[in-house]
TrEMBL record:
Domain of life: Bacteria
InterPro entries assigned to the protein according to its UniProt record, in alphabetical order: Phenazine_PhzF-like
Full protein name: PhzF family phenazine biosynthesis protein
PANTHER family tied to this protein: PHENAZINE BIOSYNTHESIS PROTEIN
GO molecular function: isomerase activity
Length: 286
């Protein structure tokens, strides 16, 4: 059996780059097939959309290693596909991490999409958490701050003093994977202290989920926005993917409330292949 897969470039920068993401709509599949789809179309992630419940579209996210409770650039990609027919979409998205409001608008394959990832948990990282990750990254005194942030799954945010240090990162991937697995972390999101107008750059390493380096990681960027809002930044523009040759940009806005701040994250999206056929692998496993 062949499947129809929409291929999306999520979180592009100035009309180029972005994270290649597979999107499949309303198809019952084995989980083994869902895991195989990203590699089949040259993507790191795939998102599966179910529109059976009109009150909330259901999203599931997979890499080659298994299912994720949340995927930010996958959510952005799904929103663009949902807007494809009418030119816009606004609604609730049901994910394993919770119910998320999202919206998208555009035409002729080019869209702007954003969503609110839900409550973000944030705390300073203890030395026993930060030190093995920093050691695997190969940094020490260049580190400004480390925080554990969670939206779906926890990850370590590592603030570095300058862009050159970020560019030069060459993590020991086996050590990083061992450390993140042991600590129960999704991965490590390294970034540079932002400019006064909220511009910064970041790199995301997640070998535990089969993604040594992510082109774009919108949920980690949302976590960063929540943290930096405590330092006076209500809007960020975060560049990623340059080290991989796929420039990506995410925009965040933070709205203060009487409770936790509300973070919205999104970017520019292009639907580059609207109907790629992929053969479903023959596999009896789930």
């Amino acid at each position: 059996m062949s499947l129809e897969v929409t291929v999306v470039q999520a979180c592009r920068r100035s009309g180029r780059g972005g994270s290649r993401t597979a999107v499949v709509t309303d198809t019952e599949l084995r989980d083994s097939t869902r895991r195989a789809i990203p590699a089949a179309v040259g993507a790191s992630h795939a998102v599966f959309i179910s529109t059976q419940d009109p009150a909330a579209v259901r999203l599931r996210f997979f890499t080659s290693t298994g299912e994720l409770p949340a995927c930010g650039h996958g959510t952005v990609a799904a929103l663009a596909v949902l807007a494809q027919d009418a030119g816009e979409y606004e609604g609730m998205l049901q994910t394993a991490a919770g119910l998320l409001p999202g919206h998208a608008i555009g035409r002729e394959g080019e869209y702007s999409a954003a969503f609110t990832p839900g409550p973000i948990e944030l705390h300073a990282a203890a030395a026993e958490v930060a030190d093995p990750i920093l050691s695997a990254l190969g940094v020490g005194t260049e580190t400004v701050a480390c925080h554990v942030a969670s939206v779906g799954r926890p990850r370590l945010l590592v603030e570095l003093a300058d862009q050159q240090t970020l560019t030069n990162l060459a993590p020991d991937m086996p050590r990083l994977r061992a450390a993140t697995d042991r600590l129960g972390l999704l991965g490590c999101y390294a970034y540079v202290s932002p400019s006064a107008d909220g511009r910064t750059v970041a790199r995301m390493f997640a070998p535990s989920i089969g993604v040594p380096e992510d082109i774009a990681n919108a949920n980690s960027t949302a976590c960063l926005a929540a943290y930096l809002s405590t330092r006076g930044h209500s809007r960020l523009q975060v560049d990623m993917g340059d080290s991989l040759g796929h420039p990506a940009t995410m925009i965040t806005t933070v709205t203060a409330t009487s409770g936790p701040p509300i973070v919205e994250v999104g970017g520019q999206v292009a639907i580059c292949v609207s109907a790629e056929r992929v053969e479903e692998p023959i596999d009896s496993g789930r």
